[in-house]
Automatic annotation (TrEMBL):
SUPFAM superfamilies: NAD(P)-binding Rossmann-fold domains
Keywords for this protein: Oxidoreductase
PANTHER family reported for this sequence: 5-KETO-D-GLUCONATE 5-REDUCTASE (PTHR43669), ALCOHOL DEHYDROGENASE, PUTATIVE (AFU_ORTHOLOGUE AFUA_3G03445)-RELATED (PTHR43669:SF3)
Pfam families recorded: adh_short (PF00106)
UniProt name for this protein: Dehydrogenase
GO function terms (MF aspect): oxidoreductase activity
InterPro entries in alphabetical order: NAD(P)-bd_dom_sf, Sc_DH/Rdtase_CS, SDR_fam
Family, as annotated: Belongs to the short-chain dehydrogenases/reductases (SDR) family.
């Protein structure tokens, strides 16, 4: 698989730190030519200089053409990693519709816009790889974070739709669904994150390793925390049991808060 990435054109959004930076380093280490995207141009430039890549800062929704030009006209792998998360808690309180709109735009619509731009080229040549950093919240949910949970479900559904619609035409899709990862986003999750995610949190590099293993095995669903699969099975097979367990977590968070 390392050989397959040699000289491949790769774009990683939200790559100024955390999971995105780890993915950029991993692809560069495999010999790929990497475009590093982030809203923070300084961070994007720092990671790009570190790995010998190219920084293309800006809104992840709007950089596909510029990134393609930077890679000499071809994107082989697009990692839709940029995301936003909010600990927006109890929607019985004040409703921040701007946060909901931003979460929908970044966590879902940025993926839709990127795929819309990428697909004509990929389908014409019969190959392309779309990697989306979803989160286990897209398979399960996350207490204390309704907009994050809902939009990550949307991100996962869109990745599924891409795969089932275009896999026979050469499109490879991978949905990465980690639980807690030691990043700035985890640090901002507050009490819910401390209770639910921190105890089993992994490093961003572990997520990159899981993706590369999943690519080698040609798997759609990438679970850096293997236990996520068992939880997903319980959710599907016995939703009452799963909801009761999640409500227990919610009560635990409320007790600690």
């Amino acid at each position: 698989m390392v050989e397959a990435m040699q000289d491949a054109g790769v774009v990683v959004t939200g790559a100024g730190g955390g999971i995105g930076a780890a993915l950029a380093r991993r692809f560069a280490g495999a010999g790929a030519r990497v475009v590093v995207n982030d809203l923070d141009g300084r961070k994007a430039k720092a990671v790009a200089e570190e790995i010998g890549g190219t920084a293309v800062p800006g809104d992840a929704s709007a950089i596909v053409e510029e990134a393609r030009d930077a890679l000499g006209g071809t994107i082989d792998v697009y990692c839709a990693n940029a995301g936003v998360g909010f600990s927006d808690g109890d929607i019985a309180g004040p409703l921040d519709e701007r946060s909901w709109a931003l979460a929908w735009d970044v966590n879902v619509m940025a993926h839709v816009r990127a795929a819309h731009t990428l697909l004509p080229h990929w389908l014409e040549r019969g190959s392309g790889r779309f990697v989306t950093t979803v989160s286990a919240a897209g398979l399960l949910t996350m207490v204390g974070a309704p907009s994050y949970s809902v939009t990550k479900h949307g991100a996962y559904a869109f990745a599924e739709w891409l795969s089932l619609t275009y896999r026979h035409r050469g499109l490879k899709v991978h949905a990465i669904c980690p639980e807690g990862v030691r990043t700035d986003m985890l640090a901002a999750t507050g009490t819910a994150g401390e209770v639910v995610l921190v105890p089993t949190a992994i490093e961003p590099e572990d997520v990159a390793d899981a993706l590369f293993k999943g690519i080698e095995e040609d798997r759609f669903l990438i679970l850096p925390h293997p236990e996520t699969g068992a939880r997903y099975q319980v959710r599907a097979a016995d939703p009452e049991r799963w909801l009761a367990g999640m409500n227990h977590l919610q009560q635990k968070v409320e007790e600690v808060s």
